[in-house]
Amino acid sequence: MAVEVVYRSSRDPERLFMDKAEADRYDKMLELAESLGEVLHKAVPSLSEQQVEDIGIFMAKHRDTFARAFKNQPDALAELELPAAD
Amino acid sequence: MAVEVVYRSSRDPERLFMDKAEADRYDKMLELAESLGEVLHKAVPSLSEQQVEDIGIFMAKHRDTFARAFKNQPDALAELELPAAD
């Protein structure tokens, strides 16, 4: 047995990481997701808390793709792998 | 009376522009909004058509701000002027 260092984001204390850089990336993703969620909830008040959280996390996880789409490549969105809609 | 040239986006034929560049910008905004809407509807199926459209148009209208937020400045979102949430 030994004491070991683990890392976590204060935004989601349940999830532990062995790697600090990975915990940092996760924290940054959650930070962006939260900011997006707040903005979208104000812009479209009919969204539920759950919807706002789902949208924020989805977009934050694919932030590079969305960054390109918003910059000048809307086609970048076609790269996202998504379940087929009916 | 005289014949004059007006411009419109095929995505929204009701809206006419006297300026071609302005019509182009509007068309590009709607294109991005549609792409965003499709992606978000697949990612979060509980969203209604109206919600998806509202989110897409809101984000596309502020594409520069969102581009910065997704790139590396989540704080950029604080600049958006939004109605206060309750």
What does this structure look like?
Chain A has helices spanning 20-43, 49-61, 63-71; strands at residues 7-9, 12-17. In chain A, 53% of the residues lie in helices and 10% in strands. The mean pLDDT of chain A is 91. Chain A has one domain (7-79): PSPTO_1197 like (Arc Repressor Mutant, subunit A), CATH 1.10.10.710. Chain A has 3 helices and 2 strands, in the order ββααα. In chain A, strands 1-2 form a two-stranded antiparallel sheet. In chain A, a hairpin with a 2-residue loop joins strand 1 and strand 2 (12-17). The interface between A and B is large, with 37 and 37 residues. Chains A, B: InterPro entries: Uncharacterised_YebG (IPR009813), YebG-like_sf (IPR038627). Chains A, B: This is YebG family protein.
